[in-house]
Amino acid sequence: MSIISISKLSKAYSDGTNALDDVNLEVNKGEIIALLGPNGAGKTTLISTICGLLTHDSGEIKVDGHDTVTEYRKTRQLIGLVPQEIMLEPFETVYDTVRFTRGMFGYPESREFLEDVLQKLSLWEKRKQMIKELSGGMKRRVMIAKALSHDPKILFLDEPTAGVDVELRRDMWNLVNSLKVNGVTILLTTHYIEEAEMMADRVALLDKGKIIFVENKDALMTRMGRKELKINFKSPIKKIPSTLSKYKLALSEDRLSLVYCYDTKASRTGITRLMRDISNTGFVLQDLKTSQSSLEDIFVSLIRK
Ligand SMILES: Nc1ncnc2c1ncn2[C@@H]1O[C@H](COP(=O)(O)OP(=O)(O)OP(=O)(O)O)[C@@H](O)[C@H]1O
Ligand SMILES: [Mg+2]
User: Fold this and answer.
1) Domain end: 193, 221, 249, which one?
2) Model confidence at 239: pLDDT above 70
3) Is the shortest distance between the CB of 35 and ligand 1 below 6 Å?
4) CA 75-79-80 angle, 5° bins
5) What are the φ and ψ backbone dihedral angles of 182, each rounded to 5 degrees?
6) Structural domain count of the chain
7) Among 77, 212, 267, 280, which has the minimal tally of Cβ within 10 Å of its Cβ?
8) 202 and 245 belong to one structural domain
Protein backbone atom coordinates (compact mmCIF):
# COMPACT_ATOMS: atom_id res chain seq x y z
CA MET A 1 0.00 0.00 0.00
CA SER A 2 1.38 3.37 -0.88
CA ILE A 3 1.76 6.12 1.70
CA ILE A 4 2.98 8.71 -0.80
CA SER A 5 1.37 8.93 -4.18
CA ILE A 6 2.77 11.34 -6.74
CA SER A 7 1.16 11.78 -10.11
CA LYS A 8 2.12 13.89 -13.10
CA LEU A 9 4.14 16.23 -10.96
CA SER A 10 5.91 19.08 -12.74
CA LYS A 11 7.79 22.05 -11.38
CA ALA A 12 9.75 24.76 -13.13
CA TYR A 13 11.68 27.46 -11.28
CA SER A 14 11.10 31.09 -12.21
CA ASP A 15 14.28 31.10 -14.30
CA GLY A 16 12.72 28.41 -16.49
CA THR A 17 14.62 25.40 -15.07
CA ASN A 18 12.42 22.30 -15.41
CA ALA A 19 13.33 20.76 -12.08
CA LEU A 20 10.56 18.13 -12.15
CA ASP A 21 9.05 16.83 -15.34
CA ASP A 22 5.96 14.63 -15.15
CA VAL A 23 7.07 12.62 -12.12
CA ASN A 24 5.02 9.62 -11.06
CA LEU A 25 6.03 7.72 -7.95
CA GLU A 26 4.37 5.52 -5.37
CA VAL A 27 6.17 5.07 -2.07
CA ASN A 28 5.07 2.00 -0.14
CA LYS A 29 4.25 2.13 3.53
CA GLY A 30 7.18 0.99 5.64
CA GLU A 31 9.76 0.77 2.89
CA ILE A 32 13.13 2.44 2.52
CA ILE A 33 13.38 4.00 -0.90
CA ALA A 34 16.60 5.52 -2.17
CA LEU A 35 16.35 8.39 -4.59
CA LEU A 36 19.49 8.53 -6.66
CA GLY A 37 20.55 10.94 -9.34
CA PRO A 38 23.35 13.31 -10.31
CA ASN A 39 23.67 16.87 -8.98
CA GLY A 40 20.75 18.97 -10.15
CA ALA A 41 18.56 15.96 -10.99
CA GLY A 42 15.70 17.37 -8.91
CA LYS A 43 15.93 15.25 -5.76
CA THR A 44 15.76 18.12 -3.27
CA THR A 45 13.03 19.80 -5.32
CA LEU A 46 10.98 16.60 -5.22
CA ILE A 47 11.38 16.26 -1.45
CA SER A 48 10.53 19.93 -0.91
CA THR A 49 7.35 19.70 -2.96
CA ILE A 50 6.20 16.57 -1.10
CA CYS A 51 6.76 18.44 2.17
CA GLY A 52 4.78 21.36 0.79
CA LEU A 53 7.72 23.74 1.16
CA LEU A 54 7.66 24.42 -2.58
CA THR A 55 4.60 24.70 -4.75
CA HIS A 56 4.33 22.59 -7.88
CA ASP A 57 3.01 23.77 -11.24
CA SER A 58 0.90 20.74 -12.05
CA GLY A 59 0.14 17.26 -10.84
CA GLU A 60 -0.84 15.97 -7.45
CA ILE A 61 0.83 14.63 -4.32
CA LYS A 62 -1.05 12.63 -1.70
CA VAL A 63 0.45 11.72 1.64
CA ASP A 64 -1.49 9.06 3.50
CA GLY A 65 -4.45 9.95 1.28
CA HIS A 66 -4.31 13.70 1.91
CA ASP A 67 -3.50 16.34 -0.66
CA THR A 68 -0.30 18.23 0.14
CA VAL A 69 -1.74 21.54 -1.05
CA THR A 70 -5.28 21.59 0.28
CA GLU A 71 -4.44 19.62 3.44
CA TYR A 72 -0.94 20.94 3.99
CA ARG A 73 -1.00 20.91 7.80
CA LYS A 74 -2.13 17.31 7.92
CA THR A 75 0.46 16.04 5.45
CA ARG A 76 3.34 18.10 6.84
CA GLN A 77 2.62 16.69 10.29
CA LEU A 78 3.23 13.17 9.03
CA ILE A 79 6.66 13.99 7.65
CA GLY A 80 10.00 14.50 9.33
CA LEU A 81 12.51 16.25 7.11
CA VAL A 82 16.27 16.28 7.42
CA PRO A 83 17.16 18.90 4.81
CA GLN A 84 20.34 18.92 2.79
CA GLU A 85 21.46 22.24 4.27
CA ILE A 86 22.02 22.59 8.01
CA MET A 87 19.88 25.41 9.39
CA LEU A 88 20.01 25.98 13.13
CA GLU A 89 19.84 28.82 15.64
CA PRO A 90 23.45 29.24 16.84
CA PHE A 91 22.52 30.59 20.28
CA GLU A 92 19.94 27.93 21.20
CA THR A 93 20.79 24.86 23.22
CA VAL A 94 20.49 21.40 21.70
CA TYR A 95 17.57 20.50 23.94
CA ASP A 96 15.62 23.70 23.26
CA THR A 97 16.17 23.41 19.52
CA VAL A 98 14.53 20.01 19.42
CA ARG A 99 11.84 20.93 21.96
CA PHE A 100 10.95 24.03 19.96
CA THR A 101 10.50 22.07 16.74
CA ARG A 102 8.27 19.62 18.57
CA GLY A 103 6.22 22.57 19.80
CA MET A 104 5.88 23.92 16.27
CA PHE A 105 4.12 20.72 15.33
CA GLY A 106 1.72 21.27 18.19
CA TYR A 107 3.11 18.69 20.60
CA PRO A 108 3.64 19.51 24.27
CA GLU A 109 7.10 19.08 25.71
CA SER A 110 7.70 15.47 26.66
CA ARG A 111 10.98 15.11 28.47
CA GLU A 112 10.80 11.36 28.14
CA PHE A 113 10.32 11.50 24.38
CA LEU A 114 12.99 14.14 23.86
CA GLU A 115 15.46 12.25 26.01
CA ASP A 116 14.83 9.12 24.00
CA VAL A 117 15.45 10.91 20.68
CA LEU A 118 18.56 12.67 21.97
CA GLN A 119 19.92 9.46 23.49
CA LYS A 120 19.48 7.57 20.22
CA LEU A 121 21.56 10.21 18.46
CA SER A 122 24.18 10.36 21.26
CA LEU A 123 23.20 13.98 21.91
CA TRP A 124 21.86 13.66 25.44
CA GLU A 125 25.21 14.55 27.03
CA LYS A 126 25.34 17.66 24.88
CA ARG A 127 21.77 18.79 25.47
CA LYS A 128 22.80 21.96 27.35
CA GLN A 129 25.39 23.05 24.82
CA MET A 130 24.74 25.83 22.39
CA ILE A 131 24.48 24.91 18.72
CA LYS A 132 27.40 27.17 17.83
CA GLU A 133 29.65 25.07 20.07
CA LEU A 134 28.94 21.87 18.15
CA SER A 135 30.95 20.30 15.37
CA GLY A 136 29.41 19.87 11.92
CA GLY A 137 28.62 16.20 12.51
CA MET A 138 26.93 17.01 15.82
CA LYS A 139 24.84 19.68 14.11
CA ARG A 140 23.74 17.09 11.61
CA ARG A 141 22.64 14.89 14.50
CA VAL A 142 20.59 17.81 15.83
CA MET A 143 18.94 18.17 12.41
CA ILE A 144 17.94 14.52 12.60
CA ALA A 145 16.66 14.92 16.17
CA LYS A 146 14.54 17.86 15.01
CA ALA A 147 13.10 15.81 12.17
CA LEU A 148 12.13 13.09 14.65
CA SER A 149 10.81 15.49 17.32
CA HIS A 150 7.17 15.03 16.30
CA ASP A 151 7.33 11.26 15.87
CA PRO A 152 6.72 11.31 12.10
CA LYS A 153 5.39 8.37 10.07
CA ILE A 154 7.57 9.32 7.13
CA LEU A 155 11.17 10.45 7.22
CA PHE A 156 12.99 12.24 4.43
CA LEU A 157 16.75 12.24 4.60
CA ASP A 158 18.27 14.52 1.98
CA GLU A 159 21.97 13.59 1.72
CA PRO A 160 22.18 12.81 5.43
CA THR A 161 25.71 11.48 5.33
CA ALA A 162 27.42 14.10 3.19
CA GLY A 163 30.60 15.04 5.03
CA VAL A 164 29.85 12.83 7.98
CA ASP A 165 32.33 10.48 9.67
CA VAL A 166 32.13 6.71 9.75
CA GLU A 167 30.74 6.56 13.28
CA LEU A 168 27.86 8.91 12.59
CA ARG A 169 27.06 7.10 9.37
CA ARG A 170 26.89 3.83 11.26
CA ASP A 171 24.72 5.39 14.01
CA MET A 172 22.45 6.82 11.39
CA TRP A 173 21.93 3.57 9.61
CA ASN A 174 21.22 1.85 12.91
CA LEU A 175 18.65 4.52 13.63
CA VAL A 176 17.12 4.20 10.17
CA ASN A 177 16.85 0.45 10.65
CA SER A 178 15.14 0.82 14.01
CA LEU A 179 12.71 3.38 12.56
CA LYS A 180 11.93 0.96 9.77
CA VAL A 181 11.22 -1.76 12.31
CA ASN A 182 8.72 0.64 13.91
CA GLY A 183 6.95 1.06 10.58
CA VAL A 184 8.38 4.43 9.54
CA THR A 185 8.62 4.94 5.79
CA ILE A 186 11.96 6.37 4.73
CA LEU A 187 12.97 8.20 1.59
CA LEU A 188 16.62 9.05 1.32
CA THR A 189 18.84 10.67 -1.23
CA THR A 190 22.50 9.89 -1.26
CA HIS A 191 25.54 10.04 -3.46
CA TYR A 192 27.07 7.09 -1.60
CA ILE A 193 25.65 4.33 -3.67
CA GLU A 194 26.91 1.64 -1.34
CA GLU A 195 24.53 3.14 1.22
CA ALA A 196 21.56 2.70 -1.07
CA GLU A 197 22.83 -0.78 -1.83
CA MET A 198 22.99 -1.60 1.85
CA MET A 199 19.81 0.10 3.09
CA ALA A 200 17.18 0.45 0.43
CA ASP A 201 14.33 -1.87 -0.47
CA ARG A 202 13.79 0.00 -3.71
CA VAL A 203 15.80 2.41 -5.79
CA ALA A 204 14.46 5.29 -7.89
CA LEU A 205 16.70 7.00 -10.37
CA LEU A 206 16.01 10.63 -11.20
CA ASP A 207 17.76 12.49 -13.99
CA LYS A 208 16.93 15.93 -15.39
CA GLY A 209 13.67 16.02 -13.47
CA LYS A 210 12.45 12.69 -14.80
CA ILE A 211 12.13 9.35 -13.07
CA ILE A 212 14.22 6.95 -15.15
CA PHE A 213 13.12 3.88 -13.23
CA VAL A 214 11.93 2.64 -9.88
CA GLU A 215 12.85 -0.88 -9.04
CA ASN A 216 13.34 -3.38 -6.31
CA LYS A 217 17.02 -3.17 -5.45
CA ASP A 218 17.78 -6.87 -5.50
CA ALA A 219 15.91 -7.36 -8.76
CA LEU A 220 17.78 -4.45 -10.28
CA MET A 221 21.13 -5.83 -9.27
CA THR A 222 20.34 -9.25 -10.63
CA ARG A 223 18.90 -7.87 -13.84
CA MET A 224 21.70 -5.46 -14.53
CA GLY A 225 24.43 -7.19 -12.60
CA ARG A 226 27.30 -8.59 -14.59
CA LYS A 227 30.15 -10.58 -13.28
CA GLU A 228 33.74 -10.45 -14.34
CA LEU A 229 36.10 -13.34 -14.17
CA LYS A 230 39.74 -12.36 -14.13
CA ILE A 231 42.17 -15.10 -15.04
CA ASN A 232 45.76 -14.40 -14.08
CA PHE A 233 48.68 -16.21 -15.69
CA LYS A 234 52.20 -16.90 -14.51
CA SER A 235 53.80 -15.28 -17.55
CA PRO A 236 52.61 -12.68 -20.09
CA ILE A 237 50.52 -13.65 -23.10
CA LYS A 238 51.49 -12.22 -26.49
CA LYS A 239 48.02 -12.34 -27.95
CA ILE A 240 44.72 -14.09 -27.38
CA PRO A 241 45.04 -17.43 -29.20
CA SER A 242 42.55 -18.20 -31.98
CA THR A 243 41.17 -21.16 -30.01
CA LEU A 244 39.81 -18.59 -27.53
CA SER A 245 38.53 -16.12 -30.11
CA LYS A 246 34.94 -17.27 -29.69
CA TYR A 247 34.87 -15.88 -26.15
CA LYS A 248 34.47 -12.20 -25.32
CA LEU A 249 37.83 -11.80 -23.69
CA ALA A 250 39.95 -8.77 -22.98
CA LEU A 251 43.69 -8.92 -22.44
CA SER A 252 44.93 -6.75 -19.60
CA GLU A 253 47.54 -4.06 -20.22
CA ASP A 254 50.30 -6.01 -18.48
CA ARG A 255 49.28 -9.03 -20.62
CA LEU A 256 49.16 -11.14 -17.47
CA SER A 257 45.44 -11.64 -17.33
CA LEU A 258 42.34 -12.24 -19.38
CA VAL A 259 39.03 -10.74 -18.34
CA TYR A 260 35.83 -12.57 -19.14
CA CYS A 261 32.47 -10.80 -18.74
CA TYR A 262 29.37 -12.87 -18.25
CA ASP A 263 25.77 -12.49 -17.41
CA THR A 264 24.83 -13.86 -13.99
CA LYS A 265 21.26 -14.59 -15.07
CA ALA A 266 22.26 -16.56 -18.20
CA SER A 267 21.53 -20.28 -18.04
CA ARG A 268 25.05 -20.99 -19.34
CA THR A 269 27.86 -18.72 -18.31
CA GLY A 270 30.39 -20.48 -20.55
CA ILE A 271 32.97 -20.65 -17.78
CA THR A 272 33.48 -24.40 -17.86
CA ARG A 273 34.17 -24.46 -21.60
CA LEU A 274 36.40 -21.41 -21.35
CA MET A 275 38.51 -22.97 -18.61
CA ARG A 276 38.87 -26.19 -20.58
CA ASP A 277 39.96 -24.28 -23.71
CA ILE A 278 42.41 -22.20 -21.69
CA SER A 279 43.90 -25.32 -20.20
CA ASN A 280 44.43 -26.68 -23.76
CA THR A 281 46.46 -23.58 -24.69
CA GLY A 282 49.11 -24.61 -22.19
CA PHE A 283 49.11 -21.23 -20.40
CA VAL A 284 49.95 -21.64 -16.73
CA LEU A 285 47.33 -20.28 -14.36
CA GLN A 286 48.29 -18.20 -11.37
CA ASP A 287 44.95 -17.11 -9.91
CA LEU A 288 41.24 -16.56 -10.57
CA LYS A 289 39.07 -13.74 -9.32
CA THR A 290 35.41 -12.89 -9.85
CA SER A 291 33.73 -9.59 -9.10
CA GLN A 292 30.17 -8.41 -9.43
CA SER A 293 29.15 -5.00 -10.74
CA SER A 294 27.86 -2.72 -8.01
CA LEU A 295 24.81 -0.52 -8.02
CA GLU A 296 27.21 2.29 -8.81
CA ASP A 297 28.36 0.68 -12.07
CA ILE A 298 24.73 0.10 -12.99
CA PHE A 299 23.81 3.66 -12.16
CA VAL A 300 26.65 5.21 -14.13
CA SER A 301 25.88 3.10 -17.19
CA LEU A 302 22.18 4.03 -17.04
CA ILE A 303 22.87 7.76 -16.73
CA ARG A 304 25.26 7.55 -19.71
CA LYS A 305 22.48 6.06 -21.83
N1 LIG B 1 15.58 28.09 -5.99
C2 LIG B 1 15.94 27.74 -7.22
N3 LIG B 1 15.84 28.60 -8.26
C4 LIG B 1 16.15 28.22 -9.52
N5 LIG B 1 16.60 26.99 -9.84
C6 LIG B 1 16.73 26.09 -8.85
C7 LIG B 1 16.41 26.41 -7.49
N8 LIG B 1 16.63 25.33 -6.73
C9 LIG B 1 17.08 24.37 -7.58
N10 LIG B 1 17.14 24.83 -8.85
C11 LIG B 1 17.54 24.07 -10.05
O12 LIG B 1 16.65 22.96 -10.17
C13 LIG B 1 17.35 21.79 -10.57
C14 LIG B 1 17.16 20.69 -9.55
O15 LIG B 1 17.80 21.07 -8.33
P16 LIG B 1 17.77 20.18 -7.02
O17 LIG B 1 18.37 20.96 -5.92
O18 LIG B 1 16.40 19.66 -6.83
O19 LIG B 1 18.72 18.98 -7.45
P20 LIG B 1 19.30 17.78 -6.57
O21 LIG B 1 19.00 16.52 -7.33
O22 LIG B 1 18.85 17.88 -5.18
O23 LIG B 1 20.88 18.02 -6.67
P24 LIG B 1 22.04 17.73 -5.57
O25 LIG B 1 22.44 16.30 -5.76
O26 LIG B 1 23.13 18.66 -6.02
O27 LIG B 1 21.52 18.06 -4.23
C28 LIG B 1 18.80 22.23 -10.78
O29 LIG B 1 18.98 22.51 -12.13
C30 LIG B 1 18.92 23.47 -9.92
O31 LIG B 1 19.89 24.33 -10.45
MG1 LIG C 1 19.77 18.10 -3.40
Assistant:
1) 221
2) yes
3) no
4) 155
5) -85, 10
6) 2
7) 267
8) no
Question: Residue 72: pLDDT band by 50, 70, 90 thresholds?
Answer: very high
Q: Are residues 98 and 233 in the same domain?
A: no
The amino acid that residue 88 corresponds to is L
| Domain ranges, residue 177 | 2-221
40 and 57 in a single domain? The answer is yes
- Domain assignment present for residue 231? The answer is yes
- Contact criterion met (CB below 8 Å) for 185 and 154: yes
How would you classify the pairing of strands 202-207 and 32-36?
parallel
Q: Pairing state of beta strands 249-251 and 226-233?
A: unpaired
Average pLDDT over residues 29-57: 94
Residue 305, pLDDT above cutoff 70: no
Q: What is the CATH number of the domain that holds 231?
A: 3.30.70
Top mutation candidate among 11, 15, 17 for ligand 1, by most atoms within 8 Å of CB: 17
The answer to whether 156 and 80 have CB atoms below 8 angstroms apart is yes
From 9, 10, 11, 13, mutation site for ligand 1 pocket: most ligand atoms within 8 A of C-beta: 13
